[in-house]
Amino acid sequence: EPEVTQTPSHQVTQMGQEVILRCVPISNHLYFYWYRQILGQKVEFLVSFYNNEISEKSEIFDDQFSVERPDGSNFTLKIRSTKLEDSAMYFCASSDIIGPNQPQHFGDGTRLSIL
Amino acid sequence: AQSVTQLGSHVSVSEGALVLLRCNYSSSVPPYLFWYVQYPNQGLQLLLKYTTGATLVKGINGFEAEFKKSETSFHLTKPSAHMSDAAEYFCAVSDTPGGGYNKLIFGAGTRLAVHP
User: What is the largest CA-CA distance in chain A?
Assistant: First the structure.
């Protein structure tokens, strides 16, 4: 079964540094998402992306965050200047064409630790 | 705004016993509801979904859930727990039913422990 793959599985970064989290969505999917889960808290929506532009973003997704689909397969989340509170598990997800009948498929996540 | 409440952050059952994980939602439009499971150090795996039609939906690993509009509930059940069911379970509602982007709103999760 096709999978969403995320790399790296664990990223340790110094506060203030830039970090890029990478995702390869399922190949025929058109909608892409990032979520995060701070330890012990809910999974929270960050951003959705379709047709090479952001569809929706949450309040968490401020100017420090950006997303990009640099080629036909990768989908990246960049945090420009990391803060301690950015430490979390970040999940990438993708879904098929329009409609909730096509649920989101999640990767295994990247655990981001900011020191 | 839509929201999801999961009653009970931890549920413990004996192997072979009934599993019942509770989920209530709030939505101003007909909801699309999902249950996801997260095993340790893994991502979220879809268990089952309700979109339209039959209110009792069956998912993987013997789980099922019933959509009850009058109670705004979507509880997850399994008749007989197995040790391998130990995981965290998340109920979620789609924020834009019928729309293209389907932002998911998650509940806080319920950690299921299964003991011999």
Answer: 41
